[in-house]
Amino acid sequence: MSELLAKVAEILGAPESLVQRSAEARAEASGNTVDEVLQSWAGGESIASSAPPAAEAPVEEVKEEAPPAAEAPVEEAPVEEVKEVADETVHEVVEQVIEEETVELKKESSLAFIIGVATVAIFTYFFAFSIPKNQSADLVAESLNNEIIVSQEVLKGAEVYNQLNCQSCHTQNVRLLIPDSQNGKVLKNKFANETIIKNTGLLRLGPDLSTSATREPTNNSKWLARYLTDSASVRDEIPHPNYDFLSATDLDYLLTYLLSLGEVNE
Amino acid sequence: MKIKLIPSNEQDLSRVFIFLLPLVVLLSALVNFLRDAFMSFSNILPGNQILNYGFLDKVSNQVSFNFLFSFILVLTVVYLLSKSLGRSIIIFPIFFLTGLGLIGIEFVDVVIGFIMPEQLQPLGNTSILLLLKILLVAAFLGLIFLNLLAKKEPSIFLSSQFLIGAVMFYLISLLIFRNDYAVMSDNFFINSMYLSTHIYVGCSFVFLAILYFLITKGLQATLFSKTLGTISFWGYLFLLPWTGFKYFYGTTLPDWIENVSIYLSISLLIPLLALIVNYSKTVATKENNEPIFSVLISFAFVVFGITNVLQIVSSVSNVTPIVSLTNFEYSIRYGYMYSLILIMIPFVYYLVPKIYGRELVYGKLEAFNAYLLGVCVVISLSLNALIGINSGFAWNAGANAGNPTIYGEGFLITWSLISAPYTFNLFLSLLFLLGAFLFTLTVLKAIIGGAVTESETVFEIPGDYDE
Fold first, then answer.
1. Which of A134, A136, A264 to mutate to test the interface with B (most CBs of B within 10 A)?
2. Closest to A162 measured CA to CA, from B420, B244, B121
3. Residue ranges per domain, chain A?
4. For A148-260, CATH number?
5. What ipTM does the predicted assembly reach?
6. What is the pTM of this model?
């Protein structure tokens, strides 16, 4: 059959896959075998046509079969190629098969779709973000009145901490769960400073730092300074970045901030 | 081979993008590898202001989730939108400039990160250019809407639906990112919503747009059901933005939003099942039997499926407290990104002959690379999930506290559980970098030395809005 298919494809000047599919559709429509259809196309007797079956090709496929003129790729224009075939019987059959695959696309309104997507986006923004965010802020503001006042040095240290992206590994006790709360109170205070809020962290890879200033040896500024600049010299079993490139002032600010952690939980 | 500096239509623009895309993927893989290296060996490797884990993590986020993402998004919109709307893009010069501006501004953010490291935020973006970025994405979205309104096709094809959803939520994510931090819970609200709208929705929607194009046009298969595709679209659009809150379980977020997030994450099963059925039934009718091309699409689909399963598994009430604030979320975040990168590879392979008129031969190198990248990504995601579960168990067992008077003692237990997977992850990052390099090599080989074949031709048809 493959030789026959190749022969017909050559006669039609169409890809084998298209001829195969056309022959199958034709065979189904006429009640003959695919071989018989192919033989008739290859020069045998023509097969009487019957009413084409209802096409069931989903819309996406239809588009692929009949691409719009603006985008028509050269190798995907089977209709035009078939027109060049001299054999009128074959010409008629192939054209009919292609007609069989054409279905009316269901009309969809662009405007309705745009409105739908925009509505979901706006709904999400307000109901998943804006409203609960404000609700949460109000709750915190109502339940707590202990605003924390931090010194300028601590604030500068918090900025250095933020710029070094320490919060990508360390949290500052953000969960109300029991395993966390044994470290100290969870930070629920009404902060006024954006940097300090951001420093609470989103992922806990290294140890939590919320009470680091109240524990050994991180309450010792000399140990801390050495650890931050040459971590392997004091603790080599766990990798920790070295910040020996920090200026002395920035390192001092950072130490001041780290030594203040623990106070903010009280 | 001729690349026009100022393209006159979407085909020309796609040509520029396809040439540069492998290089952007390579850059992203390189930064990721450096970050992982400075994570595992930070106390051995010499560090400075640039070469340290904290900074590399920020740059990696900017390069992968912003620069690479915007690059892929613009390329996909430029090529697929006109295909699925049945007409060439209207007001093309403005469209071109907006797309270029968007990519350019994401790249400028990478550069600013190196010049002014303090300006770069942990999840990428600098505050300097954020407003401009919002305006550009809004303009891009407006132009897409204009094109959609001027469409010739009666139907709106799935690929363009997903692309429009992706750009819409790109805009929403940037608006969210601009919000002020007033109280501590804002930190979780803003970052969680940014992650879910920008990465979960953005990456998965661009992935799905390309997937639907490739399994029909690329594999020459008949789409099984548009209804199932529509279920996937609206399902993911409604559900995905809410799914990030569950990773902040137990924090100061309101309880109701954590619970809603958990329930909606479990509901991801609905669009996922619709997608799986649609994918498998569609692929069953494929006529393109090129095995490597199919394998690449399958790997991308499997990675996307795994990511969805991880989302659903982490919503189980017993699992959520364990995996919260751990690397488990990393595996989901990167799952969406990796599935997008993996689907880009067959997309680029498909486009090289169409756009450049050069044949891409699927040889041993392409086959090796397909398996290398696919296996690498699947193992990497599994390892990150494992790290998340292990560290979560350790934290919940009290490892975080350890001795109440000695800092970090309990962390030794955690580190003993996760250090080996981290080191193996670094090795996988190296393999992924190799894969990205081989991808670049195969594309350049085809563009420069591939046999000449017929390329797609664009016929200009004047439309109502054409200039």
1. A136
2. B121
3. 2-100, 148-260
4. 1.10.760.10
5. 0.90
6. 0.83
